[in-house]
Design goal:
By secondary structure, the protein is an alpha+beta fold. Helix content is 58%, strand content 15%. Helix 2 crosses helix 4.
């Protein structure tokens, strides 16, 4: 019968010296399982104590290569990964029969003297990220609207341009046609143009005076009776 060993975990907390000679209070958990019961029982005198000591040694080595700011913020995932690899490598050298499944940083605290400063830095970083996010949202709203307005103006300008060009071409073709007719029959064309001009002008004239050829003067046509004399 084969015995199955379930995964186990334990927590460790230790005050460590970082690569920039600062101190950090590091707390982490190690999750592991027994992959070789015989090696676990006979190759190491006290597996639990040995595992805890090796875990702390590996974590100190990894944290000692980094600055305190990195350990506290963006470097946590790398610290976890490197500590896990280093811990497993040492256990394999000891033939401890232990398989590390995960190393997880729980909390990393700065020294008490500068704890408030680090808190302020984290708050400033969060505010910065929020400001960048808001600016990006504003950008995403304004740029498409401005692009749409620009495309609309361009489309309207293109339409206006096309309309003006077509009108100019139409007028040029009309003038060429009139010129051709005029060259064929100048008198007829001149009279037609005169009549067309009158047809356009007369509807806009409010008072019309028709003069007979027999009238020798304009005095009878003037409205002089409406004025008041002495």
């Amino acid at each position: 019968m084969r015995t199955r060993y379930s995964a186990k975990d334990y927590s460790v907390e230790s005050l460590m010296l970082t690569g920039d000679l600062n101190q950090a209070d590091v707390e982490w958990t190690v999750q592991y399982k027994i992959k070789d019961p015989r090696a676990y029982l006979f190759n190491v005198r006290d597996p639990q104590t040995t595992l805890r000591a090796i875990s702390e040694s590996a974590m100190r080595a990894v944290v000692g290569d980094r600055g305190v700011t990195e350990v506290l913020t963006v470097g946590k995932a790398e610290v976890e990964s490197e500590a896990e690899k280093l811990l497993q490598s040492i256990l394999d050298q000891y033939r401890a029969g232990i398989q590390i499944q995960r190393v997880k940083l729980q909390d990393v605290f700065p020294p008490e003297q500068v704890k408030q400063s680090f808190t302020d830095v984290e708050a400033a970083k969060q505010e910065k990220e929020e400001t960048i996010l808001m600016a990006q949202q504003g950008y995403n709203q304004e740029i498409p609207a401005a692009t749409g307005s620009a495309l609309k103006l361009i489309s309207e300008a293109e339409g206006y341009k096309l309309d003006r060009v077509n009108r100019a071409r139409g007028e040029a073709e009309r003038f060429s046609a009139i010129l051709a007719e005029y060259q064929k029959a100048p008198q007829v064309t001149r009279r037609r143009l005169y009549l067309e001009a009158l047809a356009d002008l007369l509807p806009r004239v409010t008072t019309k005076v028709i003069v007979d050829d027999a009238v020798t003067g304009l005095l009878p046509l003037l409205e002089l009776g409406g004025g008041k004399g002495k």
